[in-house]
Amino acid sequence: MTMRLIDYTVAKEGSADDAATNTCYDCLTRGINGSQDEGGHLLKFMFNRPDVSRTTGRLKNIMASPLNTYTPPTTGFRYSTAKTDGGYPIVRDPASGLTESVRYLFDDSAQNGKKIVDKNVSPTMFTQDATSGNYVFDSEHTSAVYNRATHAMDAVEHSDGGWRFWPFDEISKTVKTFTGVNHYFGVQISSALSTGPNNTNGHGGDLVLDFTGDDDMWIVVDGVLMTSASGSLDRKHAVVNFTTGAIDQQSYHTDNAEHSTVKARFQEAGITPAGGFSGDTFAPNATHTLNVFYLERGNYASNMRLETSFVPRYPLYYDMNGGTGGPKQKD
Environment class of residue 12 by beta-carbon count within 10 Å: exposed (0-12), middle (13-18) or buried (19+)? Predict the structure, then answer.
């Protein structure tokens, strides 16, 4: 399991993401939000929502979309397509029919307002739960701060609660605050997914991926979108159970829940996985590719809780010169 960290800006690099300039109307088509050509990108990064009464054309549709508001009627499936863009989610505004791949946000391409901070981070903020055996990170109790020197995530426990997932800020280790921190960022977590002989986690439990967070999250397996928490800048909860095949997701601020299955999502995408299916899930003894994508686009709070049955296999380094400080080789 490895992580990729990406930093985004709207105004200018180095400026605070909650600076007053980020409330401006022009910022809707500046930096990572795209150019003025046709209103820029479909997913908008915003501090406070500016006055959009003068928007026209495509930009008017974009700003009216639940993808960029705080009042979702549902929680996500209809905001992204089951078939992806080579593994990158495709967001969809159900009202206007506008679609766009998020490839530009997560791949190696150069974009205005985009800085790839690290392509190979060890997700060392995960700890193993003694009861379930699963690996858990919860920003409600632990801060995760990127360590450039070790290419890892420093985990620091805190007791005051609150939504504190800002991987680029030392401030999140000690201070509960929503201002003056680096809000706009993306995380991609990649892992192999092996179903084993009976589609379980190896210690008597189900093989699951359980996510809570905001603003956007997508779980993709073999190029098929399992679940999408995109749509509304709001906290959401999604669970993919690879033992039973059940997929469930819900927004924290609505009573609307959505349900599907692993098999149904693959059929909707028109893709058959390696090994085929067993009931509503994958056939046993097969290996798949898992990617979790996460975006922080707002400017009030950032939170993530991720529980997984998959064992985090961090990149291991060994010294080629017997401790002399020479070059290191990665396994």
Answer: exposed
| Consecutive H or E run containing 116 | strand 114-121
CA gap 257, 76 in Å, rounded: 9
User: What pLDDT, on a 0 to 100 scale, did the predictor assign at position 160?
Assistant: 63
* CA distances in angstroms from 19 to 11, 26, 48, 191, listed in the order given: 9, 14, 10, 36
Give the span between the Cα atoms of 84 and 290, in whole angstroms. 13
SS3 assignment, position 202: coil
SS3 of 103, please?
A: helix
Query: In terms of C-beta distances under 8 Å and separation of at least 24 residues, what long-range contacts does 97-103 make, across chains too?
Result: 98/42, 98/58, 98/61, 98/62, 98/65, 99/42, 100/41, 100/42, 100/43, 102/43, 102/218, 102/293, 102/295
pTM of the model: 0.89
- The reported pLDDT for the residue numbered 317 is 35
pLDDT tens, 186-212? 999 998 888 888 888 777 788 999 998
Assess whether pLDDT exceeds 80 at residue 180.
no
